[in-house]
Amino acid sequence: EIVLTQSPGTLSLSPGERATLSCRASQSVSSSYLAWYQQKPGQAPRLLIYGASNRATGTPDRFSGSGSGTDFTLTISRLEPEDFAVYYCQQYGSSPRTFGQGTKVEIK
Amino acid sequence: QVQLQQSGPGLVKPSQTLSLTCAISGDSVSSNSAAWNWIRQSPSRGLEWLGRTYFKSKWYNDYAVSVKSRLTIKPDTSKNQFSLQLNSVTPEDTAVYYCAREDIWNDGAYGFDNWGQGTMVTVSS
User: Fold this and answer.
1) Contact check, Cβ <8 Å, A93/B109
2) Is the Cα dihedral B11, B37, A89, A84 positive or negative?
3) Which of A38, A61, A62, B35 has its CA at a distance of 20 to 30 angstroms from the CA of residue B63?
4) A18 three-state secondary structure
5) How far apart are CA B21 and CA B73, in angstroms?
6) CA-wise closest residue to A91 among B98, B33, B102
């Protein structure tokens, strides 16, 4: 099973600032099958990025993903008020699919 | 526009069976381009993938080892839905349960692009 470790646990930033979230895998993620999700309280997760760097339909271009192998990054170039939420990475290249523990982006 | 609508009880007694259904609109449970997943979320375990069913010339299932002996995920082509049955539940199975569509078009994989609304299930007597 691939274990995903996200850092930091919490990111305290102001609107307009840049956010950089990390996801490290315990072994290489097959075909860069790494996704990022955003979750707000009381809602289901929403797919933002798939294939490590591809924006899902409806994802604003201030969100970008990068990385390969075991190290992946989600960057939010300029935080908007609606971006404060919890973000999860997920690998779906092997079974079982696994998720990271999440990074909370909170308003400073 | 794919929509997933979950239904099922919010309270289950210990040792009994947890049953949930996910009704699909805008796609087909028999599609060759989608896999149909169940995931749960709890404060202690975070997001935990449970398993999936999908059709690629025949039906396949794929389960997490942690629940494999207790879990059944079944498609229902007549109603265009799929279900989860988790046997012998304990309080540790208390969680929000989600169904989700995984895009597997053309033998690729593109993440979980549609999710149900979630069902809070409590295991308690």
Assistant:
1) yes
2) negative
3) A38
4) coil
5) 10
6) B102
- Cβ neighbours of residue B43 closer than 8 Å, sequence gap 6 or more: none
DSSP string over B55-73: ESSSEEEEE-TTTTTTEEE
- CB proximity A33 to B under 8 Å: yes
Mean confidence (pLDDT) of chain A: 96
Task: Read off the tokens for A7.
Answer: 């850092």
| Partner residue opposite B113 with nearest CB, options A43, A47, A102 | A47
In sequence order, the β-bridge partners of residue B41 are B47, B96
The answer to whether A56 faces chain B, any CB pair under 8 Å, is yes
Q: Does any CB of chain B come closer than 8 Å to the CB of residue A95?
A: yes
Enclosing H/E stretch for B4: strand B3-7
Cα–Cα distance measured from residue A87 to residue A52, given in angstroms and rounded to the nearest whole number: 14
Q: Shortest CA distance to A58 belongs to which of B112, B98, B113, B118? A: B113
DSSP B91: G
Residue in chain B closest to A36 (alpha carbons) equals: B111
**Do B117 and A44 make contact, defined as CB atoms within 8 angstroms?**
yes
The predicted-structure confidence for A34-67, as pLDDT tens digits, reads as follows 999 999 999 999 999 999 999 999 999 999 999 9
The tokens of A52 are what? Answer: 């490590």
State how far residue A25 is from chain B, nearest Cα, in angstroms.
16
